[in-house]
């Protein structure tokens, strides 16, 4: 494996002019912040239009309210998974803000777009092949960017970010072997690519394959095969890591959240019992510490979780916050929560009452692309 890492570093020097061997020796690199990003905060919404994908930008005021601030084409096409019930991409992380940059998937053209962010202005769009078919999710760790392609067998492609430019790491594309169609059928298409807090593992929940596939990452160079661990409940969808380094994973088939310990051998061990929220189609999860919010597309509401005894997720009262129809992906910044509502074609914003942990509605943006065999998906906040 050490030889393979050295070869990967040598290849990257030739492609990017930057040496990543230090990163290959240790994946403990902390995320960085770009000086290009101004103090103006924004919320970004991906239209996912099949006629031409674009990003709508909204200024976020100090009180969390949103005001339109422009629209930017990605240079690619949106896409729609087969038999998708409420959201076209059926994924989490299709639009990601990190390192003063915004990363978007163009599922319909098998590309991704990287923008530089200056407040509410997007510049220097770079469009690059995703390394597979139908990209649906992106994860960033330091100068490493991982893209999940959901079409066909599914794959994870690793990229390096050097001076704001993305370059695919040669030979660093790993198949998931899922045998799906192109475009993929939503229930059997993987939903998210997730990086562990230390950067050493890259995880992919596989929905109705009922596993979480885990690659080991050696400074971005992925192990040849993932380790597949069974999920505690059907249809693992999306996850976040808690402060203990455990994975909190939503399982849409039972509308539950389960905590998993990530072991050194890349296996996952379920901790305790799963926590049900009693709602329908819990898929997306977003942290506003110490709370975790889950979006229930089927019951048009949000559930709030908190770590309880044994650091296991527990539903906390009140358990439900109403949203507009079709809540899907979410984003958070400075304690504000923004929810993308695919059926209503809105984004609703919430502030937290920190005395009782109850979110309350503060803003609503309407006129966004509604789901109708297509529609918006992907939201991020600076």
Structure notes:
By secondary structure, the chain is mainly beta. Helices cover 5% and strands 50% of the residues. Strands 12, 13, 14, 15 and 16 form a 5-stranded antiparallel β-sheet that branches. It has a 4-stranded antiparallel β-sheet with strand order 3-2-1-29, with no helix packed on it. Strand 13 and strand 14 form a beta hairpin. The two termini are 38 Å apart. The N terminus is likely disordered.
Task: Write the topology of this structure.
Layout: H1 2-16, H2 21-25, E1 41-46, E2 54-60, E3 66-73, E4 95-98, E5 101-106, E6 111-118, E7 121-129, E8 135-141, E9 144-149, E10 155-162, E11 165-175, E12 194-195, E13 201-205, E14 211-218, E15 221-222, E16 227-230, E17 236-241, E18 247-251, E19 256-262, E20 268-276, E21 282-288, E22 291-296, E23 301-307, E24 313-322, E25 327-333, E26 336-341, E27 346-353, E28 358-365, E29 379-381
Antiparallel strand pairs: 1-2, 1-29, 2-3, 4-5, 5-6, 6-7, 8-9, 9-10, 10-11, 12-13, 13-14, 14-15, 14-16, 17-18, 18-19, 19-20, 21-22, 22-23, 23-24, 25-26, 26-27, 27-28
Summarize the structure.
The protein is 5% helix and 50% strand. It has one domain: 7 Propeller (Methylamine Dehydrogenase, Chain H).
Salient structural properties:
382 residues, single chain, four-stranded antiparallel β-sheet, 2 helices, disordered N terminus, mainly beta, globular, 29 strands, Methylamine Dehydrogenase, Chain H, five-stranded antiparallel β-sheet
């Amino acid at each position: 494996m050490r030889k393979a890492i050295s070869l990967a570093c040598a290849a990257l020097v030739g492609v990017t002019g930057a040496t990543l061997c230090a990163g290959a020796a240790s994946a403990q690199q902390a995320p960085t912040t770009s000086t290009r990003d101004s103090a103006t905060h924004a919320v970004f919404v991906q239209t996912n239009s099949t006629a031409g994908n674009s990003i709508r930008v909204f200024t976020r005021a100090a009180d969390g309210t949103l005001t339109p601030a422009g629209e930017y084409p990605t240079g690619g096409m949106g896409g729609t998974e087969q038999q998708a019930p409420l959201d076209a991409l059926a994924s989490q992380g299709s639009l990601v803000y990190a390192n003063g940059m915004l990363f978007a998937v163009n599922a319909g053209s098998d590309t991704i777009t990287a923008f530089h962010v200056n407040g509410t202005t997007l510049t220097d769009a770079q469009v690059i092949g995703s390394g597979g078919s139908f990209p649906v999710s992106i994860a960033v760790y330091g100068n490493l960017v991982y893209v999940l392609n959901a079409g066909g067998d599914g794959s994870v492609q690793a990229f390096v970010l050097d001076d704001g430019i993305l370059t695919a790491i040669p030979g660093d594309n790993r198949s998931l072997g899922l045998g799906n169609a192109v475009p993929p059928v939503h229930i059997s298409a993987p939903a998210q690519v997730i990086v562990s807090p230390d950067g050493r593992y890259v995880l992919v929940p596989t929905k109705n394959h009922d596993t979480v596939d885990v690659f080991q990452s050696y400074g971005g160079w992925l192990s040849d095969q993932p380790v597949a661990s069974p999920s505690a409940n059907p249809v693992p969808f999306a996850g976040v890591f808690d402060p203990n380094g455990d994975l909190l994973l939503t399982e849409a088939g039972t509308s539950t959240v389960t905590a998993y310990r990530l072991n050194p051998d890349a296996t996952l061990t379920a901790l305790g019992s799963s926590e049900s929220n009693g709602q329908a189609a819990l898929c997306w999860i977003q942290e506003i510490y110490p709370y975790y919010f889950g979006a229930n597309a089927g019951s048009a509401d949000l559930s709030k979780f908190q770590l309880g005894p044994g650091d296991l997720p527990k539903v906390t009262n009140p358990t439900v916050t109403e949203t507009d129809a079709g809540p899907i992906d979410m984003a958070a910044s400075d304690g504000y929560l923004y929810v993308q509502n695919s059926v209503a074609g809105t984004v609703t914003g919430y502030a937290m009452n920190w005395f009782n942990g109850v979110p309350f509605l503060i803003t609503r943006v309407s006129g966004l692309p509604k789901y109708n065999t297509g529609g918006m998906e992907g939201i991020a906040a600076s």
